[in-house]
Amino acid sequence: MSRREPLVLIVSxxxxxxxxxxxxxxxxLPGTMLAVSSTTRPPRKTESNGKWYNFxxxxxxxxxxERGEFLxxxxxxxxxxxxxxxxxxxxxxxxxxxxxxxxxxxGALQVKEKMPGAxxxxxxxxxxxxxxxxxxxxxxxxxxxxxRRLDRARQEMLSYKSYDFAVVNDDLERAGLEVQAIALGSRxxxxxxxxxxxxxxxxxxx
Length: 206
Description:
Blueprint (H helix, E strand, L loop, with lengths): L7 E5 L6 H9 L4 E3 L2 E3 L13 E3 L2 H9 L3 E7 L3 E6 L1 H9 L2 E5 L2 H10 L4 E6 L3 H11 L4 H15 L7 E4 L3 H16 L2 H13 L4
Parallel strand pairs: 1-7, 1-8, 2-7, 3-4, 8-9
Antiparallel strand pairs: 3-6, 5-6
Helix pairs in contact: 1-7
């Protein structure tokens, strides 16, 4: 069998929609790895460098932009920068794993433009009220920040048609099974398996 390109699986959703938890469900599948994002925001108390994010200075981030080192990048709320380094694709290829990107809508649209074969999943909260409750329960944001996040959530959800799949995260067990099914099913797309199919056909002769 030939050395295939990694499946790139994008997971997006409003802040507080539970996308990080669903990404963890996907990463439970064998043969998957997370693309570690770079960001200029400071780490939270529960975060460590290199696990979900590499925390870097704005000067470092801008240098990476100038060198073309990002697959996608965006500035969020007009302050902190987030980006996915291109090297994650090479690492996935070397390790023969599929690559999971947890990125926002801006980043997802950039990746889909550059890589039309990427599979994009949009995680949707069951309601605005539920999303606000989840954000408040985290206890991380001021009232102004909560308002901005809810306003942004509405804008992000208007981009749902740019995605291949949508998962409503109102039941974690069911939603977790759905994102795993999407990942497994995407591996079997004919466009991704055609080369191997042709190799197998050769064994039938003719």
